[in-house]
Amino acid sequence: MRPPNESYLNAGIGIRSWLLTTDHKRIALLYFASITFFFAIGGLAATLIRYELITPGPTLGSPDFYNRLFTMHGVIMVWFFLIPSIPATMGNFIIPLMIGARDLAFPRLNLLSWYLFVVGGLITLTALLLGGLDTGWTFYEPYSTFYATGYVILAITGIVVAGFSSILTGLNFIVTTHKLRAPGMTWYRLPVFVWSTYATSLILVLATPVLAMTLLMLVAERVLHVGIFSPQLGGDPILFQHMFWFYSHPAVYIMILPSMGVISEIVPVFSRKSLFGYQFVVWCSIAIAAIGFLVWGHHMFVSGQALYASLAFSFLSYLVAVPSAIKVFNWTATLHEGWIRFDAPMLYAFGFIGLFTMGGLTGLFLAALPIDVHVTDTYFVVAHFHYIMVGGAVMGYFAGLHYWWPKITGRRYPEYWARFAAILAFFGFNLTFFPQFILGYLGMPRRYQSYPPEFQVWHVLSSAGASILAVGYALPLFYFLWSILKGDRAPANPWDATGLEWTTRSPPPPENFDATPTVVRPPYQYRRGEPCPQAGK
Amino acid sequence: MTDEALTFQYATAEQQRETVTLGMWAFLATEVLFFGALIAAYFNYRIWFGAEFIAAARMTKVVFGTINTAVLLTSSACMAMAVGSFESGRRRGPVLWLTATALLGLAFIGIKSVEYYLEYQEHLVPALNFDVHQHGGIAEIFFIFYFCATGLHALHLLIGICLVSWLAIWIGTGRIDRSGSTTRLIGLYWHFVDIVWIFLFPLIYLAGRSG
Amino acid sequence: MSGRGILRCWGALMLLLALTTGLAFVPLGPAQLGVSLAIACTKALLVLLLFMELKASSGLVRVFAAAGFFWLLIMIGLTSADYTHRTDQRVPVDTVR
Fold first, then answer.
1. Domain of B70, in residue numbers
2. The total number of structural domains that make up chain B
3. Contact C90/B at CB under 8 A
4. CA-CA distances (angstroms) from residue B75 to A366, A391, B98?
5. Closest by Cα among B162, A429, C35 to C43
6. What is the mean pLDDT of residues A255-263?
7. Do C12 and C50 fall within a single domain?
8. CATH classification at residue B69
9. Do the domain assignments include residue B122?
10. Cα–Cα separations (whole angstroms), residue A357 to A25, A67, A360, A436
11. Both C41 and C13 in a single domain?
């Protein structure tokens, strides 16, 4: 048994003990630092974009500069923030604790994953600093191979390297979940966060290799001047889109499933009630991952693919909304007749449920072929995916960050500042992105620097919202730093929650538990608002 | 020194053995999708281009391809013999079988190199000297696939040869424990590279041969 | 697997190789692709079940092994839904250059 003040944070001092660690908790913190860095860069690009769009004409530079700006924003946010966000940070830290294990199945592979991520990120960052590229994050052919100037190959190299990082992380999680559960931890006693991360890992492992091959073929075409996807040399550019979106659509489920898992953890705790319909929620996670592989063609309705294929993809896209909706119903039913507490994690969770629902419903509009023909490549699509990725995934990220902060750092954060930041972010988000639905419906195309003056009022509203959202995101940086330096010490279970991670100290000892727990109960058991812990008698 | 010491996160050696096996199969699944993406592109072009794409396959060298397939299948059999012999506790047997595996792998690479050289002479290498006016643009796309797929396969095979050679040396010098999984896992990788070729062979060499 | 079992498996693989190469020269028409793929699948199954010991492995290992192939079939199947139903004319490649 370790002395009470020895945790994973101070067991081992010096930079080598951090850079050569195999402790999943330390690797999680390494990831936290890296993705916060990339989030800041992507956010800077977003700030410049919104600043540019305040006026109808050019503000910051040429259209070519604007193209490079939104490409940078998309590439960084998708591959270097959203894809790793919750899995690499909270997944790495919390999953072994949740299943009662001492580490992941392959700790050294875990460290390799982080190094691959950092190396990939630095390579792509170099491409951006050298002048970037203007292809958009989707790299459509033949522009990206035969006509684009800019550092296409360098940027893609970084993405492929980071892709291998995410493949190895997913592999690690899948094998860990199968083989390293504590005695008594059956599949139906696992917290939903573990099921969600498992479903996410399925996608990471099965979809990312296709992206790697697709991007390698693009690089081959650009370097060797051959025509795999280029029509002037006989190839089909739509084939590139098929292969690209076969990964990139499941990728958006990589981004949302972990957030859904976080919300499924938070809502029961802050309603003091059992999660409604646990089995439905966990199997819906798997269903979202599986059906999510069948819908990619809805990004290609106007590309020139066969109408028959478009019909099939439209139908399947309606289908994939069903398990997501079931989850929303289950969260709502959990809230019903609960003892609700409006702590910061719960405020973010409420924000998630509302904003994800709006984003999801607008996805259904886009799945309808006639509507999509009208609004595709407009700001309607931009608003839709930002509602899901920012209103959904990023809110979930902040929710989880606040929820597990005491466990990770052993400190409390200032609650009232956190609630203020959550509310500010919610308000700022809606002001930023709701006008974009209107813009898209009215016909404002995406990726345009200059626009007709009648759209300006909506752009100004959107940019004003973005400045508020930026404050909402910046505030946590300050109060989390304050928390580390001066915050109150947190007990093992500050939220009175039931999971295994709350039975060990805050912050945990290096081997997680003083003794391997034995699990006797399903998760989220509350009796009249009082928690029944999972482990023990 | 044994490479199979029980690491701290496992309760039993059996748990560790099962876990690393699952990890290897998960990795092979990613490789199936990696190569598979290329094969999917091939299939779609085969459907879309039709007869001209299939006709281009006739320019590949079926004798070389068939011999190479036989070489690789035999190397898999040798690998299986090596793993079986090793897990029965022998030391010289596995080293001999692993050496045979590596040598057959090198034979494959050698035959492939000759094949590539002949194709270079016949102006069939896209980006280098492919004769579009004689063979046509669709044949060029077929040969892009040919070189990408067989090149990537050869790269995986080279990695396998290195792994097998390293393994033979380590077994020969007694540095690998019989209770561990390394030999079995390298065997899985080798068989997988063989399976990739089993599917590439008919798609590349056997299309369009009749009629 | 025993040495004799490996030898028998190898023999079967060689026979299948001879069969697939031989049949390639027989005019089977549209069935040609299906036949050669079926033989390839048989060879692959022999390697998977016997050399890679899937026959003696747990169900979980077999699911992991099957998953990649199953997902690949989804990718090939659903993309071909596009290519088998294209109605627009393809520009003859050589006139474009």
1. 30-205
2. 1
3. yes
4. 52, 55, 9
5. C35
6. 97
7. yes
8. 1.20.120.80
9. yes
10. 33, 31, 5, 17
11. yes
Report if residue C25 sits inside a domain.
yes
C97 belongs to a structural domain: no
User: C67 and C50, same structural domain?
Assistant: no
Do residue C73 and residue C42 come from a single domain?
no
Q: Do B136 and C76 touch (CB under 8 A)?
A: no
Domain span including residue C26: 1-56
The residues, any chain, with a CB within 8 Å of residue A441's CB and separated by 6 or more, are: A375, A378, A380
**Percentages (nearest 5) of helix, strand, coil residues in chain B:** 80, 0, 20
- Distance, in Å, from the CA atom of A432 to the CA atom of A210, rounded to the nearest integer, reads 34
pLDDT digits (tens, 9 = 90+) for A7-33: 899 888 889 999 999 999 999 999 999
Question: What is the value of ipTM here, to two decimals?
Answer: 0.93
Paired residues of A378 in beta bridges: A445
Do A294 and C78 make contact, defined as CB atoms within 8 angstroms?
yes
Cβ contact B63:B209 at 8 Å: no
Architecture of the A25-531 domain: Up-down Bundle (1.20)
Torsion (CA) A142, A148, A154, A157 in degrees, nearest 10 = -20
Write the Ramachandran bin of A354: left for phi over 0, alpha for psi from -120 to 50, otherwise beta. Answer: alpha
Give the residues across from A445 on adjacent strands: A378
Q: Are A119 and A40 in contact (CB under 8 A)?
A: no
Chain B neighbors (3+ CB pairs < 8 Å)? A, C
Residue C62 C-alpha, separation from nearest chain A C-alpha, in angstroms:
14
The three-state (H, E, C) secondary structure of C22-57, written as one string: HHHCCCCCCHHHHHHHHHHHHHHHHHHHHHCCCCCC
CA gap A285, A193 in Å, rounded: 10
Q: CA-CA distance, A386 to A416, in Å (whole number)?
A: 27
Q: Identify whether the C-beta of residue A86 lies closer than 8 Å to the C-beta of residue A259.
A: yes
* pLDDT higher than threshold 80 for residue A2: no
In this structure, are C38 and C68 located in the same domain?
Answer: no
Chosen for mutation from A228, A241, A243 (greatest number of chain B CBs closer than 10 Å) is A228
pLDDT of amino acid A118: 97
| CB contacts, 8 Å: A241 with chain B | none
Report the C-alpha gap between B185 and B27 in whole angstroms: 11
Say yes or no: C49 and C10 in one domain: yes
Indicate whether C28 and C18 sit together in one domain.
yes
B158 in any annotated domain: yes
Mutation target vs C (from A298, A308, A317, A319; most C CBs, 10 A cutoff): A308
Q: Tokens at residue A50, please?
A: 């919104």
**Which two structure tokens, joined as six digits, stand for C85?**
């139903």
Contacts of A125 (CB under 8 A, 6+ apart): A41, A158
Domains in chain C: how many in total?
2
C5, C48: one domain: yes
In a domain, C94, yes or no: no
Res. A156 pLDDT band, cuts 50 70 90: very high
Domain assignment present for residue B2? The answer is no
- Distance CA(B186)–CA(B182), nearest Å, equals 6
pLDDT of residue A358: 96
Contacts of residue B137, Cβ cutoff 8 Å, sequence gap at least 6:
A227, A233, A234, C93, C94, C96, C97
Q: Is residue B24 part of a domain?
A: no
